[in-house]
Design brief:
This is Nudix hydrolase domain-containing protein. It is a single chain. This protein is α/β, with parallel strands linked by helices and 157 residues long. The chain has a single domain (2-153), classed as Nucleoside Triphosphate Pyrophosphohydrolase (Alpha-Beta Complex), CATH 3.90.79.10. The chain is 24% helix and 31% strand. It contains 3 helices and 13 strands; from the N terminus they run ββββββαβββββββαα. Strands 1, 2, 3, 6, 8 and 11 form a 6-stranded mixed beta sheet that branches. A hairpin with a 7-residue loop joins strand 9 and strand 10 (92-93). It starts with a strand and ends with a helix.
Length: 157
């Protein structure tokens, strides 16, 4: 799942938060496969024993990684099976947009194996620079493109 909070989500879910200031939050995390640090939106795996659905998984990840909760949640894809991450892998993700989340008063604990830092108040222009430099993981790029369309339709960008 991936979450783009415009103030930035998530098998995997992506989330993008957006705030009134028209900024987002990026996770800077260690990527085992490439052995480096990369930008992503909050994201994580759907676990049937822990989550009732993808939205709940996305909300948990946003709380855990970004310390955010609430806001207006928009699922950005109607594809119930999610979007394939890569042609040679089986991972899929469901992208979400979160508009105006707030600080989570009781954020969920981060996973012990995760090395995560946050980059707050990222403008759309700075996000585009990171994309053009290849610094944002592909599911988050897809999430941003879909979220940007929704935000423009609503007059928020």
């Amino acid at each position: 799942m991936a979450t783009t909070p415009l103030r930035d989500l998530l098998e995997s879910g992506e989330g993008l938060p957006i705030v009134e200031e028209k900024t987002t939050e990026l996770v800077i995390e260690y990527s085992q496969g490439t052995n480096d640090m990369n930008y992503t939106f909050s994201s994580g795996a759907f676990e049937p024993k822990k989550h009732k659905d993808m939205l709940e998984a996305a909300k948990h990840e946003l709380s855990e990684e970004a310390g955010l909760a609430g806001g207006e949640w928009i699922q950005l894809s109607d594809n119930v099976n999610g979007i394939a991450e890569l042609k040679w892998g089986r991972n899929r993700f469901v992208p979400f947009l979160v508009i105006d989340p707030v600080a989570d008063e009781t954020p969920r604990a981060k996973d012990a194996e995760e090395l995560i830092e946050m980059r707050n108040n990222v403008s759309p222009a700075d996000l585009k620079k990171a994309i053009l430099k290849g610094q944002l993981r592909l599911p988050s790029v897809q999430t941003w493109i879909m979220a940007e369309d929704v935000l423009r339709q609503r007059g928020l960008l």
